[in-house]
Each structure stands twice: as C-alpha cells, then as structure tokens.
From TrEMBL:
It comes from the Bacteria. The keyword Flavoprotein does not apply. The chain crosses the membrane at residues 30-50, 62-84, 104-121, 127-145, 152-171, 177-195. This is GGDEF domain-containing protein. Keywords: Membrane, Nucleotidyltransferase, Transferase, Transmembrane, Transmembrane helix. It comes from Kurthia gibsonii.
C-alpha cells in the first residue's frame, strides 16, 4: 500500500494537469482560429483594398490601416505554423505549456489591438465594427483562457473603440447602434469566457479524478495479484506464483532446466528449541538469500512449503549449478545461525537435491521436480547437510559420505 501511494505522489498535481490539457486544447483551437482568420482577413482586406483604389473616397492614415491588416495576418500565419507543428503532441512539458500560454497571451493582445484599430476605420468607412467583434468572440470564447487574463485586453480595447466611435463624425447615423452592440457583445463574450473556462476546468478536474481512480484501481489490482502469488512470510513466490511462472516458462521452451529442492535440516527441532518466532526469522533469511541469488535472469525461487524451497535454474551448466549451491551456503554461513538442537551440526544446515533435464513441454516440469525431490530424499535420509545432483533422474554427482550410506 505504501508503494501505491508513493506512485500516486509522483502523478502531476491537478493544476499542472489542467494547464497541460488547456495548452493541448488551445493549440488545436489556435490552429482552427488561424485558418478561419486568414480566410476572413484576406477576403476583407482585398475588398477594402479594391474599394480604396476604385472609389473617390480616401481617408488619411490608410497606411496605418494596411499595416494593422498585415500585422494581424502575420500573427495568424505565425500561430498557424506553430500550432501545426505542435497540435499532434500528446505529451507537453511544463516549459512548452508556458511557451503556449505566452503565445496565446501575445496573440490575444495583438489581434484585439489590431482589430480595434481596423474597426475604428471600418466604422468611419462602412459603419461597422465586425472585425473587432469577431476577435473579441474568438479570443474569449474559442480559445480557453481564464477571465482574469482576457478581461484586461478586451475591456481596454472596448473602451478605446467606444471612445473612437463616440467622437466619429457618423456617431449619429451608425455609431450609436455600434456602441450599444459593442457593449452588449463585450458583456456577452466575457460571460461566455467565464462559463467556457469554468465548464472546461470542471471537465478536466473530473477527468483527472477518473485517471487517478483508474491508477489506484490498477495499482491495487497489481498489489492484490502480487499478494496472491507471494508467500506472506518470505516474500518469495508461493505455489500459485510458481504456476504463474510456468505460464512465462512456456514461452521459453524447449530449454534445459535444473530444479533444486532445498530443505532446512531438523527445522522442527529448531522451532521446538528456539521458538517459532526465531524459526520465522530463519525462514526469512533463507528466503532473502534465495531472492538475492535469483534476482538475475533465468532464475526463479519459491517457498514450496514449510521449511522447503524450490529453485529453478534455466540453461545453467553443472558448474554454474554448483557455483549457485556454494554461493547459497556461503551467504547462509555468514549469518552464523546456531542450531544446537540439530543432530547434524551446531549451525544451520541444508539437504539439497537437484535434477537437470531438457523441458520440451511444461508438463515435463513435474517429472523434473519429482527427480529433484528424490535427490533431496537421498541426502535427507543419509548424512543430511549435503547436495546430490541428478540428470534425467540418474545421479551424476554424489558425495562419498552419502554413497557409503546407500
């Protein structure tokens, strides 16, 4: 359970998750907004350019009008290119999120100021402020931005345009209607901006909770599965864990397999003399040693039952098997575990039997284990504290002390 909460602590906080999701959404929306803007601005620009060159009506500062159009078209081309490069990214870093937010902030200010300037002249020429109203809507309702960030540029530009409309010469004819429309649209867009951001944020927060719940469920399932396959005392695989390992082993067949059956000598006497609490400590130390030795590839260890352990050594030579046996004994001896009640020695000893054979089908493991058990029985019912190794059920290595007892 501690591992579960440790993993959850590394998941991104809700605020960071929301910022990243907003950034991904805004990239996609900026891509669409830029395409729409370029079509709209290009059409209006060429219409106005035609009207300016083919009519007798001219107004001063037409160059500024053209420059604003070019500026707003340029910013849309830039955002289109940027959004096109990043719109398919699934993972966005915090640094990229900051860059996207900065671009959106720049986009909102430039487009609103430029459209405000353009609409001022559109009011004089055509009695309409469509460009500004369109961008007020796009920057507040299509792009997902908090109200506190959109309110300042929209109110600032709305006030500028309202003053310009009031002091225009055609205020009486069309300016009054445009002023009322401007104020109404401004209130409406800010309200929609607030609702849009709030709804999206609630949706993402709900998604974040669902993701966390799925992660908790996945981790709990993993923990429960691991608990089902693991012996509680030793943390080695139990019989069910061994059967689960056989599913993996099927993908490795055929292979040479060596099964070691390891039994603690006179363990009942150890429990009777020292107590079951100390007996459990001994089992845990033996299991820890096997866990360390079997941490590498092609090795598996499990608690077979009581004081008996099973080890699988896949594709090991005879020398490698003996090296494993020596390493195991050396590690156990380093603990200096006394066993004065033993009839074999004053320290903890083991009867170990092994069998090597080629496993073609997973059912062959049963035969291999039976032969390893026979080898262990030979040690256990003779001298104990030794090792007998078989190959295909035939003894290939037996100490002289055990051979004399046969």
């Amino acid at each position: 359970m501690k591992k579960l909460f440790a993993n959850l602590s590394h998941s991104p906080p809700a605020s960071i998750y929301i910022q990243r999701e907003f950034a991904k959404q805004n990239i996609k929306r900026l891509f669409l907004v830029s395409i729409f803007s370029l079509f709209m601005l290009s059409a209006i620009f060429f219409i106005n350019l035609y009207a300016h060159t083919h009519t007798t009506y001219h107004f001063k500062d037409y160059k500024g009008y053209v420059i604003c159009y070019i500026l707003i078209i340029a910013i849309n081309i830039f955002t289109l290119i940027y959004a096109f490069k990043h719109r398919r990214k699934q993972a966005i870093s915090i640094e990229q999120t900051k860059n996207i937010n900065a671009i959106i902030f720049l986009y909102v200010w430039i487009t609103l100021l430029s459209s405000c300037y353009i609409s001022n002249y559109d009011q004089q020429l055509h009695g309409q402020i469509v460009i500004y109203l369109v961008y007020a809507f796009l920057c507040s309702c299509v792009v997902i931005i908090p109200l506190r960030k959109t309110m300042i540029p929209i109110l600032f530009c709305t006030i500028l345009l309202s003053i310009a409309i009031i002091f225009n010469s055609n205020f009486i004819t069309s300016g009054q209607f445009n002023l009322i429309l401007l104020l109404l649209i401004t209130v409406l867009t800010l309200s929609l901006n607030y609702l849009n951001y709030r709804i999206m944020k609630q949706h993402l927060e709900q998604n974040q909770r669902l993701v966390e719940e799925k992660q908790v469920s996945k981790m709990l399932t993993k923990e429960l599965r691991a608990a089902a396959y693991t012996d509680e005392l030793t943390n080695l695989s139990n019989r069910r864990g061994y059967l689960h390992h056989l599913d993996y082993l099927q993908t490795q067949l055929p292979c040479k397999m060596t099964v070691l059956m390891i039994d603690i000598d006179c363990f009942k006497k150890y429990n009777d003399y020292y107590g079951h609490a100390y007996g459990d400590i001994v089992l845990a130390k033996v299991a820890s040693t096997l866990h360390d030795l079997c941490a590498g590839p092609n090795r598996f260890a499990s608690r077979w039952g009581g004081e008996e352990f099973l080890v699988l050594l896949q594709n090991h030579t005879e020398n490698e098997v003996y090296r494993f046996y020596k390493q195991f004994l050396n590690q156990i001896n380093s603990y200096h575990i006394q066993h004065v009640a033993s009839e074999t020695a004053d320290y903890l000893t083991f009867s170990i039997g092994g069998n090597s054979q080629t496993i073609i089908h997973v059912d062959d493991m049963n035969t291999c284990i039976l032969h390893a058990d026979e080898a262990q029985y030979t040690v256990k019912h003779s001298t104990k504290n030794d090792f007998v190794l078989m190959e295909n059920g035939k003894i290939i290595s037996m100490p002289d002390s055990i051979a004399q007892c046969q």
